[in-house]
Amino acid sequence: MEKSFLIKPMLDEEYPVIDYGKGVYLYDVKGKKYLDAASGAVTANIGHGVQEIIEAMHEQAKKVSFVYRSQFTSEAAEKLAGKIAKMTLGELNWCFFVNSGSEATETAMKMAIQYWQEKGIQTKTKILSRWVSYHGITLGALSMSGHPGRRARFAPLLEDFPVIHPPYCYRCPYKLEAPGCNYLCAQDLKVAVNRIGAEKIAAFIAEPVIGAAGGAITPPKDYFKVIKKICDDHDILFIADEVMTGFGRTGTMLACEQWDVIPDIVALGKGMGAGYAPIAATVASEKVMEPILAGSKSVMSGHTLSANPQSCAVSLAVLEYLEKNKIMNEVECKAVYLQNELEKLKGMFPFVGDVRGRGLLLGIEFVKDQESKTPFSRTAMITQKIVSIAKEKGLLVYPACAGIDGVNGDAIIISPPLTITKLEIKELIFLLKETLDLLKVQIEYGGQ
Ligand code: PMP
Asked: Which value does ipTM take for this structure?
């Protein structure tokens, strides 16, 4: 292919043309094979080319591909909503389908504001969030995102929603360790609420495991319990952004289950369609929907392709595939093996600082010095180097920020399809070691 008419994400990088995908592998038109250890962007959760999903798409397309949401519903959308309600904890019974994670978090934000309005409270319009977070690229979602790099250009258009720091235990700002720390970083939410005024705050949003902005920063045991209690005590809804963590990525339908917390609203995306179709959802509890259904009767949001039958059929087939093959049950075992192997890298490479994550959403933070945890300079471009050396070697890893001072530092996410086999995990580790060997040489000779 001589000329690409696409706007490339990185103009100076090679941009291969993919021919097809099978399982955890992608193959480009030149025949090069890539082990997709990132599931694209933590999306291809069941791998590529799964026949059952292709058949479900085909069957739905034979019936009907599109109906408009304000005129009709479809069997696929109804079944999917019912199944999600059944598979999520508590009374998260209402699904509002959208097309991307950004739309899902933005709808969650609007739903929270509408909830208070329907109860006669007009002042609760702020959403609080954390620094070192990413909730999406549309302006509402970006307003909630504590990602200075992505905010900078549009700063005048954004609300200042990020107010507290994340549970970044590797670099605890209080120099403490959980649980002895008394979860001070979570207690900070109470301070922020008192400063701003609970009467102005509709909701607090957080990712259970921080993805792109933090390289799989994972909270200690009772962190979310403390957060939820502060929200409940101050009449603030808790929104879990499970766009990256939901649909089995950490071994349970929602990652929140692992911290024994039931959110009021959940945003889902990515793994919902597993890359086979664009679909995302905002899932609301009975509590949230009650005043909305009694008042305006509908959620003040929506898109032309909301609840698209084709996408819903895909997502339903993905859920059925996860269930039938008991894929979520196997995540923990695979994750323990992979995480142990990643931990070993600390002993082999002096620049592997931290290995963290939950389930098959794992992160590695890279540092100049393990002891002092000094980060590399920004000009060393360590993350970009790792991603491109790995790609050269046929391994796809997801670039992230480590979470220092907002979103600096170097980190990658390792998040292969949940269907990866032990043998494929071994290959992943082998290719990652080769990547880091080459990085080591570059660092030694480059003098970073
Ligand atoms: N929330 C989280 C936690 C995400 O990781 C992402 C995407 N990386 C989004 C929201 C936005 O999703 P999308 O790119 O599908 O709009």
From this structure: 0.99
